[in-house]
Structures are given as structure tokens and as C-alpha cells.
Amino acid sequence: MNGEDTKILPLEDLHKAAGARFGAFAGWSMPLTYPPGVMKEHLHTREHAGLFDISHMKLFEVTGPDAAAFLARACPFDPAALELSQSKYTFLLTEEAGIIDDLIVTRLAKDRFMVVANAGNAATDEAHLKSLTKDFDAAVTPLDRVFLAIQGPDAADVLLNAGIETDAMTFMHGLELRHDWFMSRSGYTGEDGFEIGLPEADARQLVKELFADPRAMWIGLAARDSLRLEAGLCLHGQDITPDTDPASAGLMWAVPKEIRAHGAFIGAESLSEIVAKGPAEKRVGLKPEGRQPVRAGTALTDADGKTVGRVTSGGFGPSVGAPVAMGYVSAPLAKPGTRLFADVRGTKVPLDVHLLPFTPHRYRKG
To answer: Does 198 lie in the same domain as 164?
Structure first.
């Protein structure tokens, strides 16, 4: 984990002081858990406010007269239709409609957008986006920011106590609070919450102010994973990959109908063909019987032992009080209630196809 290429979070000293246990993730040394442990961290986020250091993720600023047209080519949505401060979940696709990455794009001005990309894909995304700028009067600039997420029902209140007013913001909106500060009302837990990109010195001060409120607590990567899994949210590299398309992944809600019909984005033709034909497999929720978690990579079979799918994410859901998983199954078997089986170390574990999410989303939509 301490190889030469492992990246270190700018606030690593704060995590060490908080007793974090570190592990490798997407080329970074990341806090996996803190002394309270994953179960308490998870439940604290659902009940109060969890603070996550997500500085491994990358912010890109897209600017220029052709910024909207450029993003419309890169992603299957209409950036010009976004209102100022509106955010949109979208993708970078291959020509075959495989998901290079999933992104959140926010419109900050007529010709200026903020793009939030995943850690493991940051370099790939930057190269891909920059290769497309040759046809447009637009620039892609990676930003050097600490990136923090505060999630949970008390998140807005904790920010208010730190002097940050959020009442005017609703889910999937973002703005610049001050110079070099970008904040969106979004997250990866299914709870109300915010993601804030800001300079390191400001981040250190903000963390101090947030922890003046006893409802705020550091949360590690392990609980981030169990929270997003309960919320039915995809992890790129597991649930979605360049071999997965948005239709199979059940993410076509992110592609507006007008764009499906007439969009000139990369991968448009392939995606249209997949949708017309119907995907061969679909992403589903999976609820194992008993207490044994079923992990990513486990094959799924039908009653006759025929392989019909695979688990892409799995673990224990502390809020659900039971194991939960996601994966892909043959399209005819994607109906909730379908009984399947997983081979867990030689034991045949029954599981049922289950509606997503496992816990209701609690975003502030209005």
C-alpha cells in the first residue's frame, strides 16, 4: 500500500490523528474505518452527519464558448438545457456505449461547468475529455482541491453551525460559495448531504468548525460502501464498467428522451441499438437469505445450477439489518421475487431479486 505510486490525501494527518485504519483504493491511501467501526459509522451517517474525505475524486472545470456543445458530444445529455446551478448525473461512453465513467456536471455560468469524476478514472477521463476539445472552443482544467462530503439528516444543520447557509439549495444543485469553493447538494449515501471542493487551508479550518458540532463524525470508505450499496448506487469498476451500458445498468433515466432520439454524443448509435433490442442482462438488487453476505464476483445460478448472472457488489447492510447485494442477471430473471442461488465457499445461498434501493432515499428535492 505504501508503494511509490500510492497517492496520499492532503488531510492524511487529520485522519491519522483520528485513529483511521488505512487501505489502498483506486491508487490512493484511504481511511477505511475509524475507532467506532464500520457499523457505528454507517448508522451515525443515517441518523446524524457523517464527514467523508473524498479528495481522491477529481474536479474538472470546463470553460469556453463551446463548453456546452463540447459536453453534449462527450456525454448523453443537453448541457445547454441546464439552468444555472443545476447538476446532472451523466456518463462518458465508449463508441460501443460502455461506461468509461459516471460523472456529475453542474452549470456554473453560461459557458462554464464543473465536472466531478471518480478517483480511479481521473487520468482516463482527463485524457478522453482533452482529446475531444480539438473540435471545440473549450478547455478542460483539472482543479487542485480538497473534496469533502457531509451526509445525513443533520448535515445542513451542522453546516449552518459552521456558518454555511444551505436552505436555498435543493438536491442536484451546485454553486460557488466563495472563490475556489464549489458546493453541491448531492452525495453517495442516499441521505441529504453536500459535497464541497475547496483549498486545503480552508478545508482544515472547515473540518475544525464542523467537528465543533458533536453530531459530525469522520466516516471511512468501508461505511461509504455499505451506505451506497443500501442506496442502490453504482460503484464504477464494479457495478458499471466500460463493458456495461446504461440500459443494462438500469440508468437510462439519466439520458433524456430527446437525447436518446437525436443526441450526437459518443456511443449514441450503439446505445440506441441496445435499447431497441432490449439489454440481454439487467442490474438488480439481491437479498440473500440468512446472515451470510454474498460478495462481488460470486456467480449466480438458477434452481438447475445454470449460471445466469453475477454479483457486482455485496456486503452487510447495517440499516437493513441483513446482507444486501447488487448484480446482473439475464433479463428474463430480473423481476423482483425471482429466486436465485449463490455459491459462497461451497454453500448454496438462496437469494431473491429485490427492488432497489434497499433503504429509501432522503434527498431534499424541494
So the answer is: yes
190 and 220 fall within a common domain = yes
Q: Does residue 87 carry a pLDDT above 80? A: yes
Instruction: State whether 103 and 159 are in the same domain.
Output: no
Query: Cell numbers 479550518 label which residue?
Result: 205
pLDDT greater than 70 at residue 2: no
Q: Tell me whether residue 1 is in a domain.
A: no
Average pLDDT for residues 141-165, to the nearest whole number?
A: 98
Q: What is the DSSP string of 99-124?
A: EEEEEEEEEEETTEEEEEE-GGGHHH
Instruction: In whole angstroms, give the CA distance from residue 286 to residue 149.
Output: 28
Print the domain residue range for 204: 7-55+145-230
Alpha-carbon Rg for the chain in angstroms: 20
d(CA 280, CA 118): 27
CA-closest candidate to residue 73, choices 122, 121, 119, 140: 140
pTM for this prediction? 0.97
DSSP string for 56-73: TSEEEEEESTTHHHHHHH
